[in-house]
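Human: You know discrete backbone vocabularies at least as well as I do. Show me how you would write down a chain together with its backbone fold. No explanation is needed for now; the record alone will do.

Assistant:
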Amino acid sequence: LISVACNLGFTTQGNFSRFFRDHVGVPPTLYREAARATA
């Protein structure tokens, strides 16, 4: 997850997670788990 955050220009994983949660409605970890469950 940290590599994704850095590639998108976030300085910390926490900043990315907060942004993701605010825009998607769930934290990245839960989003990834849900995506795996439906794949």
Observations:
- DSSP finds three helices and no strands in the chain.
- The chain has a mean pLDDT of 93.
- The helical segments are 2-7, 13-24, 28-38.
- The chain has one domain: 2-38.
